[in-house]
């Protein structure tokens, strides 16, 4: 990346005449672009990104935990709304967060493209020629050889297999060899950054075309079909998803089993399901494929994934009306304590055969209260263990107008408190009942607590770009590892014919080495190369080779190669 | 899943032994450091007070830990110190050998502590019948093990860095102390969501990266202190016996360059696991967010180090920030924030 924001020398000088407005605008645009793609700007944007993400870690976020945000807002009535206006509870969806990472990626692309071309050009270029004085390099050695210069260079060439090598001649019969290694470092660097761009693209595609839906299904052979949004309890569509054209696979939840350790910690969750993929549904197959749905083991069908997110209990009540007609109430109650699965809920029942609206609104029933899978017993029922060891319900039976016709949406877990306050819904019984037990109402209606069903909470997720994101992430990791482990280094040999007066050999061999990256350790490799190519001459006293220090590179050797 | 409680308690015993041995090792390194400072000061004073020189070196060993940093730079004070001493000065031919002996013993103890520490995690793993990093106690113990392991690797390659020993062991000891007291949990199986082979892969990577980054953070902190001293020798004189600033900088960089891809791997495998366990590969869970922030900060460090004007203290400061984010990620996010990663098992 260009590390200076100034215009190149060609434009820096005072122009002879006033530049036209267009030229000025062009210069401004060019300088802005240069500024944006500079390393310093990228670094500042990267910092900003980290700082901007901080509230996402410090404050509760709407996306994973909306309830925590509501709690925070009630606890902080002054600061909360200010934070809310700034988007601090939804940091990763705010325009300012998007602005930072989009600028960062523009800067990244603006830097990557020219750099990639440059690297391709560099790959084709020959290694640079041998510096005049090798002795000034951080790694250097000198010796004499009995071979002639050509033979010395040829043997060096053989030794430097895998290096990019260029052999040149200098006047006076001098032969030189330049070698380079480690171009993969820059390749890794480019792959890493390009993968980042691809990763962001994949995430964006997922956000546009993916969806997530949650649904509660009774584990008693009930069926769920991915037919449309209406099949879900909650549905989060991607920006380009309208809920039509979902893959209509179907599944049946036959059974659910949870096991717990003696201390109440969950040990395993398993749901036995059967499913038909879209093809089977469309063909009208009767065969269903079985699957054991467990935590960490989703069902993958048709590009959708089905997860087992949670579970709970649904008490089953049979209401026998005075005329002998029966109605069964079975609906999920929600856990209020995850450790003991103490649950609350409201099972709502319409009386049978009542055609008069007014009469109907006087005789609707709601069985509401607490359910304990393992009851503490006593008058005040609570749960002591999450498994169905000794279930008991502590319920109020309310009779009157449930308000179902009022047009207002109401929770399936509660009765409409307004109706109770207005006296239109009245408590007619309060009892603790174990399975098989009955509650008798004043008008002869009997309510039997039959038993308990399990329900499971399922999530269906769809993300068409998930595999692409994974591939980008793997490429990113590979590129990163290459760019941090490969060392770029240069090695030079100069073989000069010896003066006739010199003893010991026909050729003076000078070697030089330069590591071009921060990763030191070149000294060791250079030492090995030098020992083979220019073994110290026994009587070459004054030509003592430097002791190759395995790690410490010379100060000037730490030439930077990443942020020119 | 059967838990062997007896074996688990044996593991705790090993953990405590390792901690105590690390403390001894740290003390020995501190003594070495103090002796080095003394001898260094006395070498200076020796030039001015030649008569006292040989004897002073001997007494320095006797009063090793009574660090008199303000005085030691003064030759006269060193001589006065000598006069106060009633014991006969031990003749020492090589003034540094005593410091070296302390340092070497410190390293030996560190190796012993490391062996016990490793044994503790192995025993814990067998006791719980799973990888021994299923709760915060085990996780923190594993991070400290990696930090000590990384330190021993550095020592093997660069024995002259031994004088850093006390500073590396200090955060390790603090972490282990917190692990053994605040975070302690009995051997137990993990919740169903954690029962996956990804526990071994993802958490190991996080442990290894965190351990190495701990070493990098220590090196960067010392680098910053040492630079203050190099710019103004009257300040922070105790850092004068540390390795030179650029050596510390290099240790920090190398450790980070090794740890960063491992951390990246940890984040990626975490995303793969989250896809299977939670229904999405990324959901801005507090732990995910903080891991992302740490990743960005370390990316900043690596870039800063190759940007003109950002090398040196600025880059080192970024590395220290990264280290702080990792610590925040370990403690704050696990203990204070409620998220999907709340597996600490504390409280």
Tell me what you see in this structure.
The complex is a heterodimer of chains A (564) and B (347). Chain A has 564 residues and is α+β, with helices and mostly antiparallel strands. Chain A contains 13 helices and 23 strands. In chain A, strand 7 and strand 8 form a beta hairpin. In chain A, helix 3 packs antiparallel against helix 6, helix 6 packs antiparallel against helix 8 and helix 8 packs antiparallel against helix 12. The radius of gyration of chain A is 38 Å and the shape is elongated. Chain B has 347 residues and is mainly α. Among the domains of chain B are: 50-84, no CATH class; 191-347, no CATH class. Helices cover 73% and strands 0% of the residues of chain B. Chain B is built from eleven helices and no strands. Chain B has helices spanning 5-48, 50-62, 69-72, 75-84, 97-128, 136-157, 165-181, 197-231, 245-277, 286-304, 313-335. In chain B, helix 2 crosses helix 4 (75-84). The longest helix of chain B is centred in the N-terminal third of the chain and has 44 residues, at 5-48. Chain B is flat. At the A-B interface, helix 3, strand 8, strand 11 and helix 12 of A face helix 9 and helix 10 of B. Chain A: The chain crosses the membrane at residues 42-59, 96-114, 190-209, 467-486. Chain A: Residues 1-21, 525-564 are annotated as: Disordered. Chain A: This is Cytochrome c biogenesis protein ResB. Chain A: It is found in: Membrane.
């Amino acid at each position: 990346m260009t590390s200076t924001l100034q215009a190149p020398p060609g434009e820096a000088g005072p122009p002879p005449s006033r530049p036209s407005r267009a030229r000025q605008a062009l210069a401004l645009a060019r300088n802005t672009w240069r500024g944006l793609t500079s390393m310093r700007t990228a670094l500042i944007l990267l910092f900003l990104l980290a700082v901007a993400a901080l509230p996402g870690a410090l404050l509760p976020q709407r996306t994973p935990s909306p309830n925590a945000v509501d709690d925070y807002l009630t606890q902080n009535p002054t600061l909360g709304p200010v934070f809310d206006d700034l988007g601090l509870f939804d940091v990763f969806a705010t325009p300012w967060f998007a602005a930072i990472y989009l600028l960062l990626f523009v800067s990244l692309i603006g830097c990557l493209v020219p750099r990639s071309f440059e690297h391709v050009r560099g790959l084709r270029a020959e290694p640079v020629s041998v510096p005049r004085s090798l002795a000034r390099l951080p790694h250097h050695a000198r010796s004499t050889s009995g071979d002639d210069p050509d033979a010395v260079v040829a043997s060096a060439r053989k030794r430097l297999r895998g290096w990019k090598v260029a052999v040149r001649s200098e006047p006076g019969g001098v032969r030189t060899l330049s070698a380079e290694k480690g171009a993969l470092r820059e390749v890794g660097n480019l792959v890493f950054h390009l993968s980042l761009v691809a990763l962001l693209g994949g995430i964006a595609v997922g956000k546009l075309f993916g969806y997530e839906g949650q649904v509660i299904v009774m584990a008693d052979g009930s069926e769920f079909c991915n037919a449309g949004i209406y099949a879900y309890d909650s549905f989060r569509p991607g920006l380009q998803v309208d809920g039509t054209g979902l893959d209509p696979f179907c599944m049946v939840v036959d059974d659910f089993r949870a096991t717990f350790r003696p201390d109440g910690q969950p040990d395993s969750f398993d749901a036995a399901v059967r499913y038909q993929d879209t093809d089977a549904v469309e063909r009208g197959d009767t065969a269903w494929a079985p699957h054991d749905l467990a935590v960490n083991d989703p069902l993958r069908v048709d590009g959708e994934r089905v997860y087992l997110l949670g579970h709970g209990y649904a008490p089953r009540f049979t209401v026998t009306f005075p005329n002998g007609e029966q109605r069964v109430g079975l609906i999920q109650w929600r856990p209020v304590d995850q450790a003991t699965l103490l649950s609350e809920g409201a099972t709502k029942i319409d009386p049978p055969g009542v055609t008069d609206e007014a009469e109907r609104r006087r005789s609707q029933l709601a069985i509401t209260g607490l359910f304990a899978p393992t009851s503490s017993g006593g008058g005040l029922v609570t749960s002591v263990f999450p498994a169905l060891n000794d279930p008991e319900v502590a319920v109020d039976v309310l009779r009157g107008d449930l308000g179902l016709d009022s047009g207002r949406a109401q929770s399936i877990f509660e009765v409409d408190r307004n109706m109770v306050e207005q006296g239109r819904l009245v408590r007619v019984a309060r009892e603790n009942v174990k399975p098989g037990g009955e509650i008798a109402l004043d008008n002869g209606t009997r309510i039997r607590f039959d038993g308990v069903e399990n329900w499971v909470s399922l999530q269906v997720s769809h993300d068409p770009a998930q595999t692409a994101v994974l591939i980008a992430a793997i490429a990113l990791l590979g590129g990163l590892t290459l760019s941090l482990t490969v060392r770029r280094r240069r090695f030079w040999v100069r073989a000069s014919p010896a003066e006739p007066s010199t003893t010991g050999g026909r050729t003076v061999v000078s070697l030089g080495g330069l590591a071009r990256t921060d990763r030191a350790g070149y000294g060791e490799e250079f030492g090995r190369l030098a020992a083979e190519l220019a073994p110290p001459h026994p009587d070459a006293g004054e030509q003592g080779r430097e002791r190759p220090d395995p790690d410490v590179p010379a100060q000037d050797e730490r030439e930077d190669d990443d942020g020119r | 899943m059967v838990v062997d409680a007896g074996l688990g308690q044996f593991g705790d015993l090993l953990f405590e032994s390792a901690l105590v041995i690390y403390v001894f090792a740290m003390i020995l390194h501190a003594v070495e450091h103090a002796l080095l400072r003394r001898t260094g000061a006395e070498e200076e004073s020796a030039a001015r007070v030649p008569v006292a020189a040989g004897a002073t070196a001997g007494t320095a060993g006797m009063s090793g830990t009574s660090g008199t940093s303000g005085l030691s730079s003064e030759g006269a004070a060193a001589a006065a110190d000598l006069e106060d001493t009633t014991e006969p000065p031990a003749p020492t031919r090589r003034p540094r050998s005593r410091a070296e002996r302390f340092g070497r013993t410190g390293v030996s103890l560190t190796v012993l502590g490391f062996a016990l520490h490793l044994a503790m995690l192995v025993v814990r793993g067998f006791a719980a019948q799973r990888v021994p990093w299923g709760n915060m106690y085990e996780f923190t113990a594993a991070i400290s093990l990696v930090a000590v392991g990384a330190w021993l690797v550095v020592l093997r390659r660069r024995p002259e860095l031994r004088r850093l020993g006390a500073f590396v062991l200090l955060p390790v000891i603090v972490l282990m102390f917190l692990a053994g007291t605040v975070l302690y949990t009995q051997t137990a199986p993990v919740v169903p969501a954690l029962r996956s082979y990804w526990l071994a892969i993802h958490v190991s990577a996080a442990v290894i990266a965190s351990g190495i980054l701990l070493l990098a953070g220590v090196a960067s902190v010392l680098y910053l202190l040492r630079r203050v001293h190099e710019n103004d020798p009257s300040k922070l004189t105790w850092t004068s016996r540390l390795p030179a600033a650029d050596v510390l900088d290099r240790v920090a960089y190398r450790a980070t360059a090794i740890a960063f891809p491992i951390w990246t791997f940890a984040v990626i495998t975490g995303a793969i696991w989250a896809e299977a366990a939670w229904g999405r590969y990324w959901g801005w869970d507090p732990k995910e967010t903080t891991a992302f922030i740490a990743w960005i900060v370390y990316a900043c460090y690596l870039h800063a180090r190759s940007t003109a004007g950002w090398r040196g203290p600025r880059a080192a400061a970024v590395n220290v920030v990264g280290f702080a984010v990792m610590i925040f990620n370990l403690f704050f996010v696990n203990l204070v924030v409620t998220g999907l990663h709340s597996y600490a098992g504390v409280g």
